[in-house]
């Protein structure tokens, strides 16, 4: 069972990365919007707009790095899920599942007729 804890923690780490990515992308969109608004203000200096775009680009680089980490780490988790599915598939006999589904459908049909 200790291996399961490791995989669960791995999943939590991937979830944390996706949450971070979501927040970074929202910030990126806000920074782009702010730079666009700053660009439309007549009194804004060109240097201020360039600085805002520089911040956008820096955040974009961070987002790219998070995506690369997620790409690398998510494959291992997907491999784990595929392996687990294969093991379950080999251990579970289809006729038992089919009979359970049939019984459930018959039960629902009987309840709907009443």
UniProtKB/TrEMBL annotation:
The protein's name in its UniProt record: Uncharacterized protein
Protein source organism: Clostridium magnum DSM 2767
């Amino acid at each position: 069972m200790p291996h399961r804890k490791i995989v669960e923690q791995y999943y939590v780490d991937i979830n944390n990365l996706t949450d971070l990515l979501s927040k970074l992308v929202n910030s990126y969109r806000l920074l782009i919007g702010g730079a666009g608004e700053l660009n439309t203000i007549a009194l804004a200096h060109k240097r201020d707009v360039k600085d805002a775009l520089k911040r956008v680009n820096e955040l974009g680089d961070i987002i790219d790095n998070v995506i690369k980490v997620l790409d690398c780490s998510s494959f291992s988790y997907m491999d784990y899920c595929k392996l687990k599915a294969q093991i379950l598939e080999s251990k579970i006999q289809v006729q038992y599942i089919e009979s359970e589904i049939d019984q459930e459908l018959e039960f629902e049909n009987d309840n709907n007729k009443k």
